[in-house]
Amino acid sequence: MSCRSGCPTKDHSSWGECLKASNIQMNSGDAASNKTMTSKKWDAELQAYRDARKQGIQPAGTSMRKIREAVEISNKTGVAYQAS
Prior knowledge:
By secondary structure, the protein is an all-alpha fold. It folds into two domains: 1-28, no CATH class; 38-84, no CATH class. It contains three helices and no strands. The longest helix has 16 residues, at 39-54.
């Protein structure tokens, strides 16, 4: 038998053919995944949020985009932005 244990058809000529037919996506792990945020980006986002909060700004979210929007609005209006 050359198919993997989870193969529903069990008719492939090799284990590799069976794996290709299954459309399983393999990667080198979470460290190489672009689905997760890098620690450098995470730390920068946390620091930007802390800095905004120290200025009395309450962003509408914790993403860098939301933080920058809140800071920009605060700078334009002269009043610390407060998301509801």
